[in-house]
Amino acid sequence: MSALRATPARLDDDEAFLRAVPNDTPEAPWMVMNDRQVRGATALYWSLWNYKEAHHLPWYVGSMLALLYRRPGMPRRKKVAPDVLVAFLPDHPRDSLDVDAEGMPPFVLEVVSKTSVRRDLEEKERIYRLLGAREYAIVRLDEATARLEGYKVDDRNRWVRWAADERGRLWSAVLGLWLGLEGDEVCAWTAAGEPLLTPRQEAEARQAAEAREAAAEREITRLRAELERLARAGDTTNWDA
């Protein structure tokens, strides 16, 4: 008599999805980023990194970092890589982040192109929700006009659409910051409206400061020359008298 084979328990839809969904790999077509995507993502990455450094925040800010997770019974870990992420973890260089060991970053962001629409809007929305993200911001660069949208966990612990305000900004409770777009760049502001400067804005502010300093030095040089001229004129007047 042959032995009976145990019927494996049927996986629910979400668990089956996490096991079967493709990995983010360098070869995946949706991983190719154009200039607009790179500029949009790196602007936010650097402004958040500078902000946490200046304010000594317990943040780990990452970009294109592989998040690894493994479901029970899976021989290998799966991989998904957000364009930008913030986690409340020790800040040190990483090759990847093990979600099972260190937890899912509460904030993730993706910049959507025409080649990544399905991946970012469907698959990654589900992946991040199931892995436990609190906020998933989405930058739509696949449309004629760039805009921000996303999903978040609300006060009742429900995964809901993340509504923008009348200016098209998203309030991030995780970061305590407003997120918005200036052109294709993702920018951030404090609750009081103070901007977190992007690399481009920092360069512009530095150039403006250098121009003001140079103008001030020229004015000081002019005033000194004028004082010297007046002093010489005064000496001549006194001698003539």
Indicate the CATH class of the largest domain: Alpha Beta
User: How many distinct folded domains?
Assistant: 2
Helical run tally: 5
| Strand residues, percent | 15-25%
Structural class: alpha+beta
List unreliable stretches of 5+ residues: 1-9
Spatial ordering of strands, largest sheet? 1-4-6-7-8-9
Alpha carbon gyration radius? 27 Å
Please describe the biggest sheet, giving its number of strands, its sense, and whether it closes into a barrel. 6 strands, mixed
Q: How confident is the prediction overall: mean pLDDT?
A: 88
Q: What's the end-to-end separation, in Å? A: 135 Å
Number of strands: 13
Gross morphology = elongated
CATH topology of the largest domain: tt1808, chain A
Helical fraction equals 25-40%
In short:
With 241 residues, the chain is α+β, with helices and mostly antiparallel strands.
